[in-house]
Amino acid sequence: MVRRGKIGTQRGFTLIEALISIVVLTFGVLSLAAVYAQGIFYTSLSQFDYIAEKKAEQAVEAIFAARDTGTLTWASIQNVSAAGGQGVFLDGPQPILLPGPDGLVGATTDTGMPDETVITGPGPDKKLGTADDTTIDLNPWMTRTIAISPVPGQTNLRQITITVNYIVGSTKRTYTLISYISPFS
Where would you tag: which of 7, 37, 125, 140 has the fewest CB atoms within 10 A of its CB? Predict the structure, then answer.
């Protein structure tokens, strides 16, 4: 007589459980890939964010230097449209050009100056500071607005607002720097 034993339950994964595990794992890996791609995109923007920050700082520093050296009078540290018409800084968004002969950026003397470029790395000779360096022309995708306005109730104080707008791919970005200036060095 053949004795038949009780057949035990088998352990392990079924095909359906394995497929569900693969789908869950795939969803997780694709989610991580999307987050990684977005991180790479925003990291690439940091170079342009830095350039925008430096172009705003350049404008403020030029205004302070012009005041300190006497290149500009207190009355001329205004926008062209300001009361009295003595201002030298252009109104509205302007292309970022090389400074005019007075060294000011965004001023009436910039008219006709060439576009400003930024060196981004060494060229084929792998030496920085040579003629073959790689550069970025800041125009037409970057503009700078210099707005100078009186501070209410303060006759010797003006607010300088520098706004740099730029487009990288399809993303519009803005960097704003606010400072204050008085006629006293």
Answer: 7
Please give the average pLDDT of every successive group of 10 residues along the chain, which has 185 residues.
62 83 94 90 87 96 95 94 87 94 92 91 93 92 96 96 94 96 92
Q: Which tokens go with 118?
A: 């930024």
The secondary element (H helix, E strand) that includes residue 51 is helix 15-69
Residues 30, 23: Cα–Cα separation, whole Å:
11
Structure tokens that stand for 170 in this block: 């399809």
Strand, coil or helix: what is 145? strand
What is the residue whose two structure tokens read 């009078």? 73
Long-range contacts for 27-35 (Cβ within 8 Å, ≥24 apart)?
none
